[in-house]
Amino acid sequence: MTRVLVDPDSGVAPWRQVRDQLVHLIRVGELAVGAPLPSIRQLARDLGLSVGTVARVYRELEAAGVLRTARRNGTVVAAVPSGGGSAATALAEAAAGYVASARALGADPHDAVQAVLRAYRDEEPAVR
User: Fold this and answer.
1) Boundaries of each HTH gntR-type domain copy (predicted)?
2) 27 lies in a domain?
3) What is the DSSP code string of 41-97?
């Protein structure tokens, strides 16, 4: 499985960080339908979280039909999450990830926004 990371300084609850990252990985196809996920205990150990925190994530995603757990087969991806306005949802997820990264770097909101605007300017096609 692609690495899931938890940033304790992000201001976002750890369970929400894990949930959002798993949803993103499934939406972009890095975790395909049928892909196995680590056990709750293993993922909790890997992330340094409580078993209850990871169990909450798995329960929520199971309730949404995204994950399926069978005793013998463990937890697997059951479906790609639906997301009303998927482009808007994907953008919100990307923004949340960027904010977490910017905070980890110690950037203030103004500097983070300016970095995005510079990136947009650098990617604009030349006017002919």
Assistant:
1) 12-80
2) yes
3) HHHHHHHT--HHHHHHHHHHHHHTTSEEEETTTEEEE-SPPP-SSHHHHHHHHHHHH
